[in-house]
Every structure is written in C-alpha cells, then in structure tokens.
C-alpha cells in the first residue's frame, strides 16, 4: 500500500507554498497517497484546484482555539487518516505539527520558504533550532535561505537540503497553437504595453509600490495598462490608491482566478514588486510562459536571474527604480525579446516540476 503523505498548509487559499504542496503530491502520486490539510479556516478558493488534481483535502479551522486543542485535533486527524508522513510547509506550522506528529507516531518533514518569519518571530527561530535534530527531513528553496538557517539558526548543514521551486512547464508555456490567452475587458488592453502581477494582496507583495511605479510609467507611456491578479486583505487599500492616483481606467483587478497561464499570456511584462520573498513561484511561471520579468532583488532571485540578461532586477522599496525598469521594458523591445528567450531556457532546465 502506498504511504500516506499529508501536506500541512496555513489555509485553503492560493499561494506559492500552497501550490508547491499540491505539485509535490501530484508529481509523487505514483509512489504516495496524498492529502492536503488547511490548519486555519475552512473551505477556500484552493479547494477546486486540489480536487482538479485528484487529491483529498481536510480542514481543521483552529482559529480561536487554544494551541493544545489544535494539536489534539491534528493528532486525531493524523491517526484517523492513517498518515505516514506529515509535511509542514512553514516553520510557523511546526508549533502544531511537531507535537501532533509525535502524539500520532507520524514522521514529520518540513520545508522553509523565506527568512521573513524568522526575522519577525523569535519563537520560530528557537523552535526550528530545537526541532532540527529530530525531524525526518528539512528542505529550503534557496541557497541564501540555507545559509541563513545554518549561520543564524544553528541548524546543522547536513540536516538541510536545497530544493528549488518548480513549475509545470507544459501548463505554463508561451502563447501558441492550442494555448489560450485570457480575454481582457473590451478595448482595455489595446495599444500600449500590458504590465501584470499575480500575487496575494498583502504587505509582502507591496502593491502600493507597484501602483506608484505604474503611475510614473504612465506619465511617459500613457497607453500602458496594469493587470492585477489575486485577492487578499490589502486589496481594498490598493483599489483606493488606484483611484487616488487617477489610474481607474488603466488598472484591472481580476480577483482570484484559476486561469493563471492564460492571464500571464495576456501580459507583455510581469512585475514583481515584493518587499520580501523566498523563491517566488509567480516569477518562474511568468518566465515559463515567455513573459519578460521586472523583479525586486528579494530572497533567492539573485541565484536564478541576472539583471539585464534574464530579467530586470531592482532593489525592493524603490519605486523610482521599479518605474525605470518598467519603462526600459517598453523602450527596448529587442532586448526584451532576448531576455524572454534566456529566461524560458533557464526555467525549463533548472526550475521544472521534474527537477524539483
């Protein structure tokens, strides 16, 4: 009988770590039986994608409950579902995952995606340092993150393995025969370049910085458009700022969507404005679709891309630099095309699902 692997995620909402959890189970399906468990909240917009991949899912909704209650509920679920391996997709989840796995006699493995949680939560640093010798395995998504966990957290180097994020390079591929492109609002995307972003609306993604940079671009390229895909707690704030900047007719908010490859193919340039990241899956997906990328230099971006060769890379928190790189994309179509080709080749050779 196949071993039962349960992926433990924060909640049933799309995100880089969440999609990687699904991809891991889907790719491993010949060898394991997979279930996805959302610790916080109930059913969410990720559920249709989970079901489309033929995976089972559960939710525990431990919000408002004591940690002991949450641990007990997770341990009971692990026993009831006869789980063999629990895979926690963030250090924050270890507070529940570690004691529950111990109580249920389940092997625990853990993947870290970024340093930000450690920098803001001293408890997470201590927890990982204490648990590392006893976990079944630890992986992280960049060499930068591995060095941080060794040098700052004190995790033994032999306990850590770098496994870079991967993307489905068949599903995420350039426009062409049999490859659909999302329909944009009538007349909206005609004329100027369409910039785009796919991300949850939260502090980390810095949508306000992106909107301010786009407003600066519009001053010299008035036909430019901006496509923002996703939802989140900061969306209302972004929509208000869009109005204050006079960008209503030039920016389209799609909300949560499942047709991400089709939406990416409708973009001319992908822009990541994040303040911090690990290894952003959205950038890899855009590159796989043949979309040139402007990105902030966050997380492990520098391990994969080179400014001017595979992407335009700018410092985070720098609206002027972001706007300048976006203008450069508009003004240098030949360089943009060459960058697109190099980025596609890099993703296919180093960041496919198979490689991951």
As a percent range, the share of helical residues equals: 25-40%
User: Biggest sheet: strands side by side, in what order?
Assistant: 3-2-1-4-5-6-7
- The best one-word shape is globular
Overall radius of gyration: 21 Å
Chain oligomer state:
single chain
**Main pleated sheet:** 7 strands, parallel
Strand/helix succession:
EHEHEHEHEHHEHEEHEHEHEHEHEHH
Please report the total strand number as a whole number.
Answer: 13
What is the SS-derived class? Answer: alpha/beta
What is the number of helices?
Answer: 14
**Low-pLDDT regions:** none
What is the topological layout?
Blueprint: E1 4-9, H1 16-27, E2 33-38, H2 47-52, E3 56-59, H3 67-80, E4 85-88, H4 94-104, E5 107-112, H5 116-120, H6 122-131, E6 137-140, H7 143-151, E7 160-162, E8 194-198, H8 207-220, E9 225-229, H9 235-244, E10 251-255, H10 260-265, E11 269-272, H11 281-288, E12 293-296, H12 301-304, E13 312-314, H13 319-331, H14 333-350
Parallel strand pairs: 1-2, 1-4, 2-3, 4-5, 5-6, 6-7, 8-9, 8-11, 9-10, 11-12, 12-13
Descriptors for this entry?
356 residues
